TrEMBL record:
Organism: Caminicella sporogenes DSM 14501
UniProt-recorded name of the protein: Peptidase family M50
GO terms (BP aspect): proteolysis
Molecular-function GO term, any one: metallopeptidase activity
UniProt family annotation: Belongs to the peptidase M50B family.
C-alpha cells in the first residue's frame, strides 16, 4: 500500500483492534473473570492492546493481530457458555463500529458544502469508508473456526469439542494453516465474499 492509503486506514485499524480486545476484556470481567482487569486490559487505548509487529503486518500485508486478551474460564459461572460470549464480544464490537461509521457517512451526505470543502469531505468519507471495510474484515476474519481466532472458541464451544483431543491437535497446526492461507491469498477467497455481502447489506440499510 502507498503512504496515503496507509494514513487512511490507520484510524480504522487502531479503533477496530482496540475496541475488539476491549470488548473481550470487559465481557470477561462482567462474567466474573478479573484477569483482563488485573492485566490492565480494561481500556480503549490502542497502547494497551497493540502488538507492534501485528499492527505493522496489517499495514504491510493486510493481515495482523493485536495482543490477545487472556482469560481464565474457571472464573466464570458457566465456563463453556461464558467463553463463547467473550469470544463473540470482539467481532460484535467490530460490527457495531462498522454500523456506526456507515451512519456517520450517511449524516455527512446532508452537511452543506459551505461547511465542508470538497477535499475535506472526500478525506473524511474515505477514512470512514476504510473504517467500515476494515471492521467488517476483522469481524469476518475473526469468526473463522481456526484457532486461536474467536470463531474457533465459538464453533468448537457450541459443539462441545474444546476439551477434546482433536481440538488440541488442530490448535497445534492452526497457526501453520493460517499462515498458508494468508501467503497464498486463499484467505481472500474465503473471507472476501462475506465481507462484500455484509458491507453491501449495511449500505443498503442506510443508503
Amino acid at each position: 500500500m502507498d503512504l496515503i492509503k496507509i494514513l487512511y486506514i490507520i484510524p480504522g485499524v487502531l479503533l477496530g483492534l482496540s475496541l475488539h480486545e476491549f470488548a473481550h476484556a470487559q465481557t470477561a470481567v462482567w462474567l466474573g473473570d478479573d484477569t483482563p482487569k488485573l492485566q490492565g486490559r480494561l481500556s480503549i487505548s490502542p497502547l494497551v492492546h497493540l502488538d507492534i509487529l501485528g499492527f505493522l503486518m496489517i499495514l504491510i500485508a493486510g493481515f495482523g493481530w493485536a495482543k490477545p486478551v487472556e482469560i481464565n474460564p474457571y472464573n466464570f459461572k458457566k465456563p463453556k457458555r461464558d467463553d463463547i460470549l467473550v469470544s463473540l464480544a470482539g467481532p460484535l464490537a467490530n460490527l457495531l463500529i462498522a454500523i456506526f461509521f456507515i451512519l456517520l457517512m450517511k449524516i455527512l451526505y446532508y452537511i452543506p458544502e459551505t461547511i465542508l470543502s470538497d477535499s475535506l469531505y472526500h478525506t473524511i468519507i474515505t477514512i470512514f469508508d476504510y473504517t467500515v471495510w476494515i471492521n467488517i474484515a476483522l469481524l469476518v476474519f475473526n469468526l473463522l473456526p481456526i484457532p486461536p481466532l474467536d470463531g474457533s472458541h465459538i464453533f468448537f464451544g457450541l459443539l462441545g469439542l474444546k476439551d477434546k483431543p482433536f481440538y488440541y491437535q488442530f490448535y497445534d497446526k492452526s497457526r501453520f494453516i493460517l499462515f498458508i492461507l494468508i501467503i497464498t491469498n486463499f484467505i481472500d477467497k474465503i473471507i472476501g465474499p462475506p465481507i462484500f455481502i455484509i458491507y453491501s447489506s449495511l449500505e443498503g440499510l442506510f443508503f
